[in-house]
């Protein structure tokens, strides 16, 4: 969600302002389009609270030291109505994360003590509540474990229109680290309550001595071979602490039906059982195919900072998970600065502060990992694109300055890991292990395969054009002393041969 500013590249009207630039950036294929429509008086005013009229203000979740604000084009934003429609149809329950993003600020995004949950219903259901407990039986949950959130209508996309979508989000804070919680969403007036199935999730560790397991992937757009669903089965089976997804969720950003196809593939498995969507935290970054549409913000749950960065909500954030500091950022306007000339300055200020604090905290949290879409170092289709090269010039000096251990990206639908390298950006220099950054492109879980290539910085490079695989993913196992990365081919039968291993040590 959620955007209070009026930047032309991010606010309503992006379709007219940025389509040509976005199409040029969309892999040279059928490009995405802009926002979901044009804001009118009715879409910004909405019907608001229980009595209608002016909309409610930002959501201030109970027990959380942050706010959640609507984007200006959202319809019927409400934090107070509790109506239940005739056919609520609670569906696509998805786990996410809220919180502030400014370094050192109260309410900083923290998956060890908080969670965000979103879902869809029919248009007439405004109830946006969550209840939770420590067992699968809701009858055992404490009565006080109940919180309310916000609801709105996201305007339908300009492609394959299927109507405005009733969305809900709710946030819970004050949880215990490394603890499994069971929950359900819904609510409503006493005697008319409706609830979802019971889901569960486990908060991440806050103790840097606790090891973590992370599954990393990207570029699911197209949903070929149901690769995204196949990968989620693997995510569940390996007991992932969380996932990292490097962008390009869908192919055509203004198509809500395509978003829902992707959500459905992670919501339930092929047998109809609950899968990872509502049960495993995924940290997403924005890809060029998302194109800053309302559907990108409306369908995903990510940290924002209403006060510090109102115009760039959900575009950059960081979290500490056990021994790993993870930085997630949108690099679109770094590679294509004409879309928003102000973004680079804002991002640089935030990123320098975040990296400086993380580098100073190495004794406690030793590893720094970054996640964004356009890989700095790639020998595949986009390796020499102008926007990729601009990103390389911007990011490599920062990663060198603050000794980033691993940079994870997608955009090219193949697997390529670099040797440890440092700058200069125009001539990457291979160095000894531990003296530079590893650059990883690991993508193609639903998108079409690209050819692989090699460069002087390449350690390993593979594609899945003819191997029988349907994509790639990596599993990162991090402890306070080691960072172990294993790359896999994704196969429909789950055999998933290992293609790469590398271990960093402290």
3D architecture notes:
This protein has helices spanning about 15-25, 40-45, 225-235, 255-265, 295-300, 330-335, 345-360, 385-400, and strands spanning about 75-80, 90-95, 115-120, 130-135, 145-150, 150-155, 165-170, 180-185, 195, 200, 210-215, 240-245, 280-285, 315-320, 325-330, 365-375, 405-410, 415-420, 420, 430, 440, 460, 470-480, 480-490, 500-505. It is of the alpha+beta class and about 500 residues long. The chain is globular and about 65 Å long.
Q: Topology of this protein?
A:
Blueprint: H1 14-25, H2 41-45, E1 75-78, E2 91-96, E3 115-121, E4 129-133, E5 146-148, E6 150-154, E7 165-172, E8 180-187, E9 194-195, E10 199-202, E11 212-217, H3 227-237, E12 242-245, H4 256-267, E13 282-284, H5 294-299, E14 316-321, E15 324-329, H6 332-335, H7 343-360, E16 367-374, H8 386-401, E17 406-410, E18 415-418, E19 421-422, E20 429-430, E21 438-442, E22 458-462, E23 471-478, E24 482-490, E25 498-505
Parallel strand pairs: 11-12, 12-13, 15-16, 16-17, 17-21
Antiparallel strand pairs: 1-6, 2-3, 3-7, 4-5, 4-8, 6-7, 8-9, 8-10, 11-23, 14-15, 18-21, 18-22, 19-20, 23-24, 24-25
